[in-house]
């Protein structure tokens, strides 16, 4: 006993070392603020990477946009090419026939709009002038009307801008934009040809670095992307065609001029969810207001609302199915973001690309197994209370 009582220091030292090993000192990064700081740094890094990616895409839009559009059209028209090849048509001939159909449809829609507007431009411009004069006369009857001097100054300012060098620069910029559009269109057609002809082989080449479960996941991502884009394009085109035909018949009955180009615009704008239908209705109502008066314009608005209700309640659930399971709030947010980043093309591509991202998430862990964080949580069974009531 005396021996142990004389030398207590070694045992105490061992206990101190054991306690230090079991409970290491708390780091500044281990508490709540430390974890928050780590998450903040991670978020900043991710945001910087996304910003860099968007900036890089904006620098090569002349290549990226035709590439994305070609992928969308190939997803939509790929089944046509495969059907022709199953019927014994050679691969090159089947691809050329499908490509010719795509080009004819796109060029035909553009020609209908431009040709109709050019042929009716004189009539439409004269009606617009008369409508503007009537609106101006009505406006001056209001108690809060702006004095005529200020209106004349505004008109003179517009005339000065049109005849200025700044307007000429804007016109030259428009010519450059047209040249870029033609270049991008030709590039899209070339890329689309190769996608339709050798799309599966090209995708298999991209998948060569992957093996095992990573290969299976990459295959699911590719298949889901093509399925979502193809279903989106075919479903939206079907809905847009029904909208355009319904509004075209209504405009013909009401004898509104430019009924055909307005119907084509309805078809094209239908590819922009929510916003496109509203814009098409406003354009049709404005033309009716200028040429036929306010009563016909109100009737046109009623026709547009009726057609849109038919589309939203009956056509989209049947034709689109489960392809576009995106909430309306999400659609509006991605439309605003796409417009801010990419302008008109960003508006057109925002929703289908978002649908693709969500589709990839839903097959991340398997054909019907979403990613862990995206799985729907099961509700807990309510705890019964006294008297048969539930705690929920």
Describe the biggest sheet? none
Number of helices: 13
* Computed structural class: mainly alpha
User: How many DSSP-defined strands?
Assistant: 0
Summed over residues and divided by their number, the pLDDT gives a mean of: 78
Q: Beta-sheet strand percentage?
A: under 5%
Query: Which bin fits the share of residues in helices?
Result: over 70%
Subcellular location: Cell membrane
Membrane topology: Multi-pass membrane protein
Keywords: Cell membrane, Membrane, Transmembrane, Transmembrane helix, Transport
GO cellular component, one term: plasma membrane
Write structural notes for this entry:
With 392 residues, this protein is mostly helical. The protein folds into 2 domains: 59-139 and 171-206, no CATH class; 212-371. It is 79% helix and 0% strand. It has 13 helices and no strands. The protein is globular.
List keywords for this structure.
2 domains; mainly alpha; 13 helices; 392 residues
Could you give a quick summary of the protein structure above?
The protein is built from 13 helices and no strands.
Topology:
Blueprint: H1 2-6, H2 9-22, H3 32-59, H4 61-86, H5 91-119, H6 121-140, H7 148-162, H8 165-206, H9 212-253, H10 259-269, H11 275-292, H12 294-319, H13 328-362
Helix pairs in contact: 4-5, 4-8, 4-9, 5-8, 5-10, 6-11, 9-10, 9-12, 9-13, 10-11, 11-12
């Amino acid at each position: 006993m005396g021996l142990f009582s004389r030398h207590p220091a070694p045992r105490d030292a061992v206990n101190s070392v054991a306690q230090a090993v079991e409970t290491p000192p708390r780091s500044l990064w281990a508490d709540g603020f430390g974890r928050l700081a780590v998450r903040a740094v991670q978020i900043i890094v991710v945001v910087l990477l996304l910003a860099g990616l968007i900036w890089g895409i904006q620098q090569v839009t002349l290549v990226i946009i035709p590439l994305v559009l070609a992928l969308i059209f190939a997803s939509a028209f790929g089944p046509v090419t495969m059907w022709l090849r199953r019927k014994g048509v050679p691969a090159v001939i089947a691809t050329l026939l499908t490509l010719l159909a795509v080009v004819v449809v796109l060029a035909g829609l553009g020609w209908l709009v431009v040709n109709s507007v050019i042929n009716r431009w004189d009539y439409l411009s004269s009606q617009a002038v008369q409508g503007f004069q009537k609106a101006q006369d009505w406006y001056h009857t209001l108690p809060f009307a702006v004095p005529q001097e200020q209106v004349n100054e505004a008109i003179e300012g517009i005339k000065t801008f049109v005849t200025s060098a700044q307007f000429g620069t804007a016109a030259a910029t428009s010519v450059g934009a047209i040249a870029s559009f033609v270049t991008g269109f030709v590039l899209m057609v070339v890329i689309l040809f190769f996608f339709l002809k050798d799309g599966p082989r090209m995708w298999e080449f991209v998948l060569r670095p992957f093996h095992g479960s990573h290969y299976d996941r990459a295959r699911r991502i590719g298949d889901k992307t093509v399925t979502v884009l193809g279903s989106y394009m075919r479903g939206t085109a079907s809905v847009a065609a029904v909208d355009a035909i319904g509004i075209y018949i209504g405009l013909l009955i009401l004898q509104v001029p430019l009924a055909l180009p307005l119907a084509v615009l309805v078809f094209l704008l239908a590819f922009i969810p929510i916003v496109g239908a509203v814009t098409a209705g406003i354009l049709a109502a404005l033309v009716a207001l200028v040429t036929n008066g306010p009563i016909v314009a109100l009737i046109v608005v009623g026709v547009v609302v009726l057609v849109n209700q038919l589309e939203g309640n009956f056509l989209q659930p049947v034709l689109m199915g489960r392809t576009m399971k995106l909430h309306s709030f999400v659609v509006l947010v991605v439309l605003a973001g796409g417009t801010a980043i990419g302008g008109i093309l960003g508006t057109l591509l925002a929703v289908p690309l978002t649908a693709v991202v969500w589709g990839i998430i839903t097959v991340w862990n398997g054909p019907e197994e979403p990613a862990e964080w995206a799985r729907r949580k099961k509700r807990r069974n309510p705890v019964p209370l006294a008297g048969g009531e539930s705690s929920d």
